[in-house]
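Running this now, will post back.
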Amino acid sequence: MARDSIANGSEDGVLDPLDPHPETQSALREWLAFQNAFHLRPERGIEWLARKGELSGWRARSRAAASDIDAQRAVLRRCRVRALPWLAPGYPRGLHRLSDAAPLLLVRGEGEVALLERPCVAIVGSRAASVYGLGFARELGEALARAGVVVVSGLARGVDAAAHEGALSAGGVTVAVQACGPEIVYPAQHRGLARRIRARGLVLTEMPPGTPPRAPYFPLRNRLISGLSRVVVVVEARRRSGSLITARHALDQGVDVMAVPGAVGVATSEGPNRLLAEGARPCLGAADVLEELGIDEPEPPASSSARAVPLSGEGRRILASLTACPESRDALALRLGLSAQSLATHLLELELEGRVVTDRDGRLRVVSERGEDIRRHR
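Update: finished.
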């Protein structure tokens, strides 16, 4: 259905709480009342909007107290949060097509809402990611941002934060989708990160002002992460995790899902490996994602050099041991006092970086910077 301008909002229909026009403030009150009624059952709200094609007449149906709505408007003014209704021309098309789209998006940041129409890729994964997973997410976010892709994630600890950081380090744009009110940053330790995201991109939510982060809100939030995106990349995730919920939403929405292969037997590899078994495309780097998007990979800056993912303490121990003496996995695990699962986790980061290879006799060997096996040079 066609989307029309909202009151005296801008051409994209964004409602600015600092706009003094009475029509804008009246529309903002009505949309906030609508959001309060339907933010936890968005499909009901979208059904009503699709049937009526306008918000006119909703105010009489609203049960929200006028004082509550005015308090929420005050929060939006104080935090410079714009409101983007489902009926607005600037509402992102990827979300607008969903039967459970957010009736109202609350948007905070210096970026224009039009950036949500650019190619967006969601990078999601475990809060307790490995060193390798964090490094992969950061490098992927950086490379995609350098290619002009908007990196979308959820501002959570672990993979989410690494993806945002990578996009920012490349001078690119990233979008964080939260499961709480727009004036709240969760987790609180990411206030600085959220501030830097807002300086170039956007932090958005469908939750009304004053809504605390609660467990049931995160799965609801995840459908927005996937709906905004053309591709969802799962880096590391347990079998039952929010990242897999995002992937399931993506599949239901017709959004492509990619997964980063992980070591068999490692808990945070179970999610991506399961997705791969079900037909998800492997993601071995930014080139795979850009190919999926139909975007050419940009040439790296002439002054840049490849950066190795920082190793964990165990990774350094393994590398030192194999440099001294190539040996089998079992012998190495025994020498270092590591379980088979722990060894597999740390070997994965070394093997994917090309620092360690497995010889034909099954022994692990270190690879030098020139790409040669270190055999007798010790």
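The domain at 313-366 is CATH 1.10.10.10 (Arc Repressor Mutant, subunit A). More later if anyone needs it.
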